[in-house]
């Protein structure tokens, strides 16, 4: 009987209508403030929150409208909204647009206990899927490094997330939320580190020994996640002062009582020791599995994409993302495919009236012609991890972060475990030369001395090498100084 909420009654999936109502009710720069308007507006929000959110998450406009509902909802309705997503978190995360709403939840809902119980718990239950699925993986990347422009473009953040920064029900600073999501008590970062230690090649780096490994080889985005896991678990990235400084919303004119004390965010000595051990084990697996095996230069690692324009590189990145998404969805569909067709009258349908040739033809037609089936030949050569662009990027990011924070763990681990013959072989490939440069630039006297000693026999070869990385490396080695 309330005319203010009458238009909301038929709304189920027509998100354009929902968005129109929200734009009329919630201008981007203000919220209802009169008593009558507030009452009718809350009634509208209750109607939308009660079963209308999920159907809205399949389009960009619907997701945008759902985010407006979230920002406008008071704490009581936010609890109802989050609880209404129970058992649907994985499917929402896999959606092309729905995963952005999950990111919005982690960004705007202050109640970390509520998020832990109804969102993060389901993420942990299906953590491998979140690692391998390109859309779901963005939720993990946000949790590890909120509003990072490397993972969410500034344009996307400006259009989808920043409009909610002024809402009156989100009081927690972004840095506090980042610390909460990294805390061992949430179990997200520790579980990711355990996955790195136990499933490194199959889930992240890739190999040719399994279908999962082959999928990982084609999906460079998994290395981005691996890099964030190893970076954000370092002790200096678990320091509240650093995190509160690095992560801020577009509008950080927060209320005086909204900023938590830094000491309250500090990890206990037991928690820090746990994270240090887990990270050390994960780094050790990276070195042992990806860098210790005998290195044989693959050849000319330059690819045509290196000379392409930024627009062409962006198009290639989009194509790779789409390809990875289709591959994973196909693999998940094959995993969940029932062994038998539906039964009818006690007999399988394929025995009664099912034509197997017709089914085979349909399956063949369903395969995307642009991305054919994965080959199964495991004898084909594969480029060493350190020669792959994403492999060099991972090591460079980790070593540069170590240099900035005087953390020599990875550089020392490489010198300790990788054989001298391998390190010398690295000088014959441009990307691995730059990894040696990054190791030297960490500035650890122990690492610099070891590199000068190990690479001394190949100085003559380096001095005549045409590789850009070799020219930088020989200059560092001949300087004889630690940076």
TrEMBL record:
Keywords: RNA-binding. The keyword Cell inner membrane does not apply. Residues 297-316, 336-379 are annotated as: Disordered. GO terms for cellular component: nucleolus. It comes from the Eukaryota. PANTHER family: PUMILIO HOMOLOG 3 (PTHR13389:SF0). This is Pumilio domain containing protein. Residues 360-378 have a biased composition (Acidic residues). The keyword rRNA processing does not apply. Residues 136-207 form the CPL domain. SUPFAM superfamilies: ARM repeat. GO terms for biological process: regulation of translation. GO terms for molecular function: mRNA binding. Gene3D superfamilies: Leucine-rich Repeat Variant (1.25.10.10).
